[in-house]
Amino acid sequence: MTLPASGPLTLGQVAAELGIGLPLSLGDTRVRALAGVASGPISLGQLRGKSGATPLSATARDDFGSANTQYGPGTVSCSPSITAGGGTGTITYLWEFTSNPDGCTLAGSAGATCVVSHSYTKNAVGTANVTLRCTVRDGAGGVVVRNGISAGLEWAGTP
């Protein structure tokens, strides 16, 4: 929520915006930080249109996986992830391939971590490299898109 840009404004609204209780004074360090006034006189007017919410942020982590194929067929996988911070309300995620030349599979595309996988046969040798995008949304309509997330896979057998 953002404080009103016009009309009545109360310390109760400021407290709610900051997620703290009353009593509260204009000189409180949290109120000063919200207003952007480090010292000196401060008024309710300096809080108009301000928001105590921390903007949504997202940091991506690439991942890599490998497998030994000498024991038979299987699947190799890795789990790239997103760490979201700030935002308001429920955080949602949507993972998508932006490049998938090796035919990998994507699972868990609605979570903070997805799984990229590729099947192999016994004693097969190969690699797969994909690029992903993750769109992170919060309950207040904030959106962060992280492109260029890498996932690499390799598989080989040892005779």
Question: What features would you highlight for this structure?
Answer:
Immunoglobulin-like, 2 domains, rod-shaped, 9% helix, 2 helices, mainly beta
Overall number of domains: 2
| Share in β-strands | 35-45%
The gyration radius over C-alpha positions equals 24 Å
| Known CATH architecture of the largest domain | Sandwich
Task: State the end-to-end CA separation.
Answer: 62 Å
Q: What is the highest CATH level, the class of the largest domain?
A: Mainly Beta
| Mean pLDDT over all positions | 92
Number of strands: 9
Low-confidence stretches: none
Instruction: Estimate the helix proportion, in percent.
Output: under 10%
**Helix and strand pattern:** HHEEEEEEEEE
Written description of the protein model:
There is one protein chain. The protein is mainly beta. It folds into 2 domains: 37 residues, no CATH class; 100 residues, Sandwich (Immunoglobulin-like). The protein has 2 helices and 9 strands. It is rod-shaped, with a radius of gyration of 24 Å.
